[in-house]
Structure formats: C-alpha cells, structure tokens
Design brief:
By secondary structure, the protein is an alpha/beta fold. The chain has a single domain (3-199), classed as Rossmann fold (3-Layer(aba) Sandwich). It has helices spanning 3-13, 20-27, 44-51, 63-72, 111-121, 158-164, and strands at 34-38, 55-60, 79-83, 94-99, 122-134, 155-156, 168-181, 187-199. It is globular.
Length: 202
C-alpha cells in the first residue's frame, strides 16, 4: 500500500468509535490488564485500552504507524511500541490480544506459527478479539490489485476459524457482508468474520 493510502487510512481511523466486540472483550477481563494490539495503525484501540487501565504492547509493520503512535502516546510508559511483522514480534504474556483487520495481511504460510505463538502468549481465561477475511471479500478476488496494495492476504471461512479456536470458549462469532467504498473512495465488497473468544483454563 502506498504511503498516501496508508496515511489516508490512519487519518480516517485515528479517532474511530470503539467496536462493540472490543468492549465486550474488555468486559471479560479483570486482572492482569495486559493487552497486545496487533497492527495498531493510528492507535485508536490503544487509546481505548489505556482508558480502561491496560498496559498495551502494540506493533505494526508500517513505520508510519509507529511514528504516529509514538507522537500520540508520548510520555505514556504503559504503551510499548514496536515496528514488527506478526512472525517477528515477541508476544509477551497477556490477558487480551486484539487483531482487528490485521491478520488479513499475515501470509498464509506464516499463519500457523503466528497463531500458535499468539495464543500461547495468552494467559488462561485471556481473550482474543479479532477479525478474519472471508472468501467473498474484494481483497480475496482476482481483481484485487496486489501490486498496489498487499501482495498476500489470508482468507478463510467459518469452519476453519472455529478449528483454530479449539481450546477457547467462543463468546461471540459474527459474519459480516457489506458493500461500500474504502477511505480512498474505491468500491469494495466486505466479507469479514469477527470473533471474541476466551482461552480455557488449564
């Protein structure tokens, strides 16, 4: 994705309303309040999690995201930022993992190891709150410009997602299909699955 498109996306999402599934996930957690924000972007989820008393470990592959968040959260020692990929990030023990619209861009070949490491870092009764890209999304289709945007996307379906959630109690699971335009005005068909799941006790 070009720098112009990335900055447009960050501008559109920097102060977005907190999603209901993230609020639901936070309500499930008492202590410790330690979160990992995977693909933190402009930091809207970081801001919400900090307001709810979480220490937040956040990473993004884009340098511009980390620069923006360092500026936004200057002086906050409980926001720890890293420029990293999913497979290179060192996942600390946590009670919440947030991966909204970010696992879409984890290469399929990397995903099994990434998922293993992510879920292993969750403490018992820890919560995963994230979304997955469905097979009918524009990004999964033949007309998606991978040269201009992302060369690899991870697409999946309900059966596969539920198989990944073995060892979790599924709190909410929803499929979304909507049509509209991206922040850049490009027509888009969205097909997403949103999940909140709590890791079972040992």
């Amino acid at each position: 994705m070009s720098s112009k498109e990335i900055l447009a996306y960050f501008s559109a999402t920097e102060h977005r309303t907190t999603r209901a599934d993230l609020r639901q996930a936070v309500d499930l957690i008492v202590e410790p309040r330690i979160a990992i924000d995977c693909g933190c972007g402009a930091g809207s989820d970081i801001a919400y999690l900090r307001s709810m008393g979480f220490v937040v470990h956040a990473f993004d592959i884009e340098e511009s995201a980390i620069v923006l968040c360092k500026k936004r959260f200057t002086g906050d020692a409980d926001v720890l930022l890293t420029q990293s990929t999913f497979w290179e990030f060192v996942y600390p023990p946590s009670s919440l993992i947030v991966a909204d619209a970010s696992l879409f861009f984890c290469p399929e070949s990397r995903f099994p190891e990434v998922w293993r490491r992510m879920t292993a870092s969750l403490l018992p009764r820890g919560v995963f709150a994230g979304s997955f890209l469905g097979e009918d999304d524009t990004m999964a289709g033949p007309d998606y410009d991978r040269e201009a945007f992302w060369p690899e996307t991870l697409t999946t379906n309900e059966q596969q997602i539920r198989s990944w959630l073995k060892g979790f109690d599924v709190v909410s699971f929803a499929e979304h299909k909507t049509s509209g335009t991206t922040v850049n005005g490009t027509p888009h068909q969205w097909h997403l699955y949103s999940v909140v799941a709590q890791k079972q006790s040992l």
